[in-house]
Amino acid sequence: MNRTAMRASQKDFENAMNQVKLLKKDPGNEVKLKLYALYKQATEGPCNMPKPGVFDLISKAKWDAWNALGSLPKEAARQNYVDLVSSLSPSLESSSQVEPGTDRKSTGFETLVVTSEDGITKIMFNRPTKKNAINTEMYHEIMRALKAASKDDSIITVLTGNGDYYSSGNDLTNFTDIPPGGVEEKAKNNAVLLREFVGCFIDFPKPLIAVVNGPAVGISVTLLGLFDAVYASDRATFHTPFSHLGQSPEGCSSYTFPKIMSPAKATEMLIFGKKLTAGEACAQGLVTEVFPDSTFQKEVWTRLKAFAKLPPNAVRISKEVIRKREREKLHAVNAEECNVLQGRWLSDECTNAVVNFLSRKSKL
Ligand SMILES: CCCCCCCCCCC/C=C/C(=O)SCCNC(=O)CCNC(=O)[C@H](O)C(C)(C)COP(=O)(O)OP(=O)(O)OC[C@H]1O[C@@H](n2cnc3c(N)ncnc32)[C@H](O)[C@@H]1OP(=O)(O)O
Question: 1 in ligand 1 pocket by Cβ < 6 Å?
């Protein structure tokens, strides 16, 4: 996509309008008014209709909602409309996605959709317009969702992405808000948080499955080495451009990747930033199995539902036996990687790469 087409396209907008018609639940009057107002603003621009009389309650409420948008540009209204619809119907964002169900949907997440049904807790990254980049809020919410999933009655936990990307990795704007203590303090705090974040994956007590629906970048790739199975659409790619970003590997990948795929293949990915196709990642052992995108969701969820019918205690104990002998080593690797990264974040190489991305001079 080029930079001028970054905002929601006319096609995204039309898809969103269709999705509204497919909503299973009435979103309520407040949301409907918001949708109406954004639609009018996106298609006609600022409200210039005469104000309806006080007794025409419905028309007046619609007019008020539209008028409240003031001079919001059409393009921004279109984007807000798409975002609002996607927050109402995340499962519809990508037509190829089949939900395991929405029986129990956890609320209280801004950046995720968390559902639990059929013995499966599904944690879905839900910032599709940002390619599911992981901002600070999402890091915290993933930790919270994993902690809840470790205690709920599900048998397995699944991570996946909403929209066309699995995740574009760390949100590079995470580097921009500098606290009063300066960049050193920021780097130190981030290293502590990153260690805690990766620690949640190391210690997760149930089988953790990635359903990689599209391209994956950076930390969303490295973490896969800590998952118990990785199913990928043939649209997925796997890219860890750490050197390009002046950074170094995390997510325990400096340990797991050489073990999984051989030291030389790990070097190609982690140091030289070689992007793998799903087929290549499968041949290297990072991905368990690749499916054609057209049948990906159906085939994978059918399989996962069968896994989730296995006896819970046996599943949990087996995971513990497998993870046990590696846990201490993984925590040590995680600590060291975070320590090294803390220094990298203060380097000119890293600063320049982030500035270049944010000033639109570069992308992967
Ligand atoms: C517990 C708290 C811990 C805090 C710890 C913080 C630090 C932890 C760091 C851990 C180390 C992690 C390392 C990594 O993950 S490295 C990988 C970082 N990712 C990237 O470099 C990807 C950058 N993105 C791109 O190159 C392109 O966007 C991409 C190729 C992914 C897609 O290109 P395309 O042209 O298809 O789409 P757009 O570029 O138009 O993207 C759409 C919008 O999404 C925004 N976007 C996408 N990815 C990111 C990102 N990673 N960070 C920020 N924003 C992103 C993009 O800017 C567009 O937004 P706008 O529409 O608003 O312009």
Answer: yes
